Amino acid sequence: MGTMSSLETTILFGEQLIKDYTVNKEMDSVGMVVLSLLRRIVELSDGVFVSAKHNLDGPASLCFRGLIESYLSFEYILLVPELIDRRALAYYIGYQNQELETAEKKLETLNKDKDKDQHDDDIKYYKGIIDEYKLILKRDYLSETVQEWEKVKKKNNKNNKRYKINPKWYSLFNGPTSVNMLARNIAEEKYSKKKLGIDELYNYLSLSAHSYSSLDSFDVIDGKFYLQPTRILKQNNEKSFHMYPTIAILISTYLSFIKNKYPQYISNYDKLFATLENTLLMNMSNK
To answer: How confident is the model at residue 142, as a pLDDT?
Structure first.
């Protein structure tokens, strides 16, 4: 089985895993966070696959970057079993606060409009969802996480009078303060630095996080700079388009999810791994 076929098989497995889990398991806030990240990982992997199928290197790289960030969030939440609930709720609170802030800014803009009377329905709508988000954040089971969020936010903005910046969700409870630190944290706690190319993921993030990778769009020919077109077709081969690391991320994601949330699915995972084994071994032998 070639790398592209292996990637498609791995993505289809994830889609079925999600369907089976939603049918057989009840959902709570923690399960919703973990499952939504799993879905995002499968979705972005499919973006890599579709881009590779059409020989589009740029979109494949963009999807791969998003995939890395979602994967790191997912792995961090499941990294320590006794901290799964706390970290998942931190992610959940981060989402709720972000949505609340977005709605408040939108409402503020509408209220400042000189023709605000024409926006009565929109103003009513945003007031309603703001109240909903605030009610969610007052739920008893979220109180510890909300208090920690406010504490970290206050600390982060101690010397910032003009703008109030929300903390990174994973920084709560003395967690890492940047996505690169998050990658290092996972590498140190879970992986032997070489497994799944965690260092390569870290380096890729370091470059992309500062948008330096945008300079890859320039070619230098005879001392002159040429900007590449936005749609770059690249010849497909077994090592192109981040396909192998995408497969590796997917199977790692599935194993973490199944071990922690759906252990009865492990036999299905074993069958998938057996199907992919030759592809994985072939890639390792070509390094």
So the answer is: 96
